Task: structure prediction
Amino acid sequence: MEKPEPVPRGYVLIVDDDDDILAIVAMHIEDDGFAVRTAHNGQEALEAIRERMPSLVLLDLKMPVMNGWDFVHRFRELYQHAAPIVVMSAIDAVGRRAADLGAEDWLAKPFEATALTEMVRRYAA
Amino acid sequence: MTPYQERTMVSEELSHDELEVLSGALDQVEWTAEPTLRFTFVGANATNMFGYPRTAWLAPDFFASRLAPDERETTLALCRSVAADGRQRQCLHRFVAADGRARWVRTAIAARWDGPAIRRLVGLTAVVPDVVALHEREREAQRLILDQLPAIVWTTDRELRFTSGSGAGLSALGLVPNQLIGGTVYEYFRVEDPAHPYIASHLRALAGDNVTYDADWIGRSYQVHVEPFRDHRKAIVGVIGVALDVTGRTRAEAERDAQRQLLAALISNLVEGVVVADVEGRITLVNAAARRMFELDPGAATVRELADRTRPRTPGGRLLPYPELPWTRALAGEVVTREAFVVEHGGRAFHLVTSAAPIRTDDGTKTLGAVAVVRDESERAELELAKDQFVRVAVHELKTPVTIMKGHAQGMQRRRRTLDPEVQGMVDAINRGADRITRIVEDLVDVSQLQLGTLEVRMDSLDLGALVSRVTARVAGRTTRHAIRLLPAESIDVKGDRDRLEQCVRILLDNAIKYSPENSSVEVTVTTEAGRAVVSVIDHGVGIPAEKQARIFERFHRAVTDTPHDFGGLGVGLYLLHEIIERHGGDVSFVSVPGRGSTFRFTLPAPE
Result:
């Protein structure tokens, strides 16, 4: 007998220019029962948000076309704090930079899968 | 080049349009001008290179009014001499662009002839990089000084081939500057005999002697000094000689003069900068190299002005106050040896290493001034910086692939029930490997931040006792093979960076575990001593060999290299610990007995 499709616990938008990173982050979050959409830069993310407001944005900072800093500023202008933003980056002092940016939280790359899923549950569930 | 040759080279057939195309394609402005230097045509680049509209260039005194005031006359004189004798010349000078900034340019000028009369001037003006320009000006100035010396000054290489020849005295011998270059001393004096005084003196100078002798050349009397010519490593690369015309002068006068000339020639040729100041701090001598390092005018001024303008700093970035400058300290009697400082001008940092000493009267009773010898080590410093930046970029690039590795390994660990046990072990090993790369990457990031001076330490109020118990509990939870015990920790308020101090405790605990046998214990204490908070980590492990103890806080130094206890690692943990604690105003110490164990402790200032 076929199981009914479970109702997702939340909808997470992952923004990163690296396809492999998008794939593994999406895999862990989907395994945990969340719906996921991916974007390669700030501009694609804003397009996705226009269609549907996510319950959480996981955001890389260094990206082509529109980087994470510019994305946060644009997002705040348009939607204020409609969704929490968690910065997910390999740059130095990512915690401090996320705080300066007014992001809700941060994950330094490389991170543990458990740290990722805990973070998503805290903000998106 | 004769006027006739020039006339044939500059074609009169070049049309206006052709000139336009030509000058637009080159990184220079091509122009024509009346003999009065009023431009009659300027190339298309005139506007993009200097910002003035092309019509502005056609005003009567445009060129003269855009020259830097201090060199306007010499530059104009040179240009006018082209109009006078038709000989092609070039000159390095400054030209003030529309934004008000003086740019270094090289202007080459030739004459165009109309029958016997010079009809107009044609020229090219190209921007040259500032550094190149300064360097050339400096050499030019040096040459002019040497050419004006009332003496003959020459240098040779080790084969006694002339490498320079200058001085106003050359004309008495019917020579012009540098005419001798390439020829040998043997050829000039037409002697082969190594025992001949002219040759023997040069050979002795090559062997390290200073030689003085009298000579008669073409009916005049000279006193000749030859000395070894040394490079900055003190290796003898040739001979430097000075001949002073002493016809009709007393011997004593001549000797004093010769010494002075020789000294002047040597100092002006030094790679090192030389700055001499008198007891009042007035600068009395500065050579070309020092002028470049401090951007000094030939007539400058005082040590205080030099410091105000160049703002010397320690390599760590602290501004050197006046009493700590090498001259000030040397005037106070101190001998300064090889101290590093940094000055900045023209948008560039100069990393200098200086030695300074007082200048005293012969009997040593009175100080006359101070001399500092300064060496420019910017190139090495820039290489170091480039290397640190490379490491920083390279390790960052590693973070993304490691994230991907870990992500997939942990994805498989989640599905471990679907994997057979052997594969499970492989996946666990991949994850552990990724963690080890992560630790190396983090260490290297920290080291590069320390080297680049970008490591930030935030001073928050925190409870050191709580911090240490938190880290100890975390580390203890990770190991089953060692007993880690935190002795009752006091609550001590200190100021510091939470993350960095946690890192310090972690480094000490990791080392203690790594270099202790299984089942041995590691004790951690937090106490106060004489107003300072003290954290100690005591192990009963392999200890550190006595001969290796002195260097354990150095970057990439590993005391365990080539011992049975070498478990890998970069050798940066203790270096990081030391640097971080130092930035907190604390200190690190240790006691270690090989075979018995080590006790490491760090202290932090603890406010009452």
Remarks:
- The mean pLDDT of chain A is 88.
- The first strand of chain A starts at residue 11 and ends at 15.
- Chain A has one domain: 11-124.
- The interface with chain B takes residues 18, 20-21, 24-25, 27-28, 31, 90-93, 95-96, 109-114 of chain A (CB under 8 Å).
